[in-house]
Amino acid sequence: MNTIKTVGLLTVLTLLLVAAGRIFFGPQAVPFALGIALVMNFGTWWFSDRIALGFAGAKPVTEEQAPDLYRIVRRVAQEANLPMPKVYVIDQAAPNAFATGRDPQHAVVAATRGILEIANERELTGVLAHEIGHVRNRDTFVMAVVASVAGAISYMAQIAQWSLWFGGGRRDSRDSGGLGMIGLIAGIILLPLAAMLVQLAVSRSREYGADDQGAELSRDPLALASALRKLEAYNRKVPMKVNPAVSPLFIVQPRLAGGIGGLFSTHPPIERRIARLEQMAGVELPQANVAVGQNARKVD
């Protein structure tokens, strides 16, 4: 069901891109908009991992430098019947992790220094199982495509806005696909908003799917629930210095430096995600058992 929903939302996003081209630049821009979609999808497919890792400040580590991290990633990847991903570490105190890569053969798993310090092995296994679940579901490519197309729509709206300001009343009804000035203004306001809402819907759907995968691969839904609660508590206090463009990739949406969290969350509510995981386990997880820092064993 998640796959069908995602395909439908991607179709809607592509149609929004075509509509943006028609409204902002006229009917003759429709083939150009389709061409942009194809080019961006190919560019995203090829370069998404390098862009995401660069924006996140992630650096590769060897197995000698992070033996426990490699051991857990390898074990979960084998459980998922996937190739061993590349392993990166982000030198930041905020505990978090993400996965990227165009397919399982080019997957990368990145974890912050903070999560290696505060998560015990059960929790870290649950988090990494969630990320490898993204890889198995091919969410890493889907989310990169969604972000690139939504970004293209916003960029086109900005161009149209500048054109409106400097072109003034010279535009006639032949512009904006025959919709006139009112259609142009409405498109500038509504199309980027619609694209953002589609992006949020895709992101939230894929997060729930990765939670399901994490619970299955780790065989321990409560460990992932514990990790999510712990990561959420720390991330409320410790901001991350990363480009906002990669914020949706992390397992818990980071609190960005300067307190900027965005008006809309790309992640489902943590409480709802935890409740789903607890329901999978068939029990209620006692709050005392997942207190931040309690019984946490460091992973070097």
Overview of the molecule:
The chain is 60% helix and 6% strand. A four-stranded mixed beta sheet has the order 1-2-4-3, with helices on both faces. The chain has one domain (2-290). The longest helix has 39 residues, at 180-218. With 300 residues, the protein is mainly α. α5 (121-136) packs across α8.
Order of SSEs: HHEHEEEHHHHHH
Helical run tally: 9
How much strand content do the residues show? 5-15%
Please estimate the helix content: 55-70%
DSSP summary, beta strand count = 4
The tally of structural domains comes to 1
**Could you give a short account of the major beta sheet?**
4 strands, mixed
Could you say which overall geometry the principal axes of the C-alpha atoms support?
elongated
The stretches of 5 or more residues where confidence is low (pLDDT under 50) are 169-178, 258-263, 284-300
- State the separation between the terminal residues, measured CA to CA: 39 Å
| SS-derived structural category | mainly alpha
What do the pLDDT scores average to?
80
Radius of gyration: 21 Å
Q: In what order do the strands lie side by side in the largest sheet? A: 1-2-4-3
State the main characteristics:
60% helix, 6% strand, 300 residues, elongated, mainly alpha, 4 strands, 4-stranded mixed β-sheet
Write the layout of secondary structure elements.
Blueprint: H1 2-25, H2 30-56, E1 58-60, H3 67-79, E2 86-90, E3 97-100, E4 108-112, H4 113-118, H5 121-136, H6 139-167, H7 180-218, H8 221-235, H9 270-281
Parallel strand pairs: 2-4
Antiparallel strand pairs: 1-2, 3-4
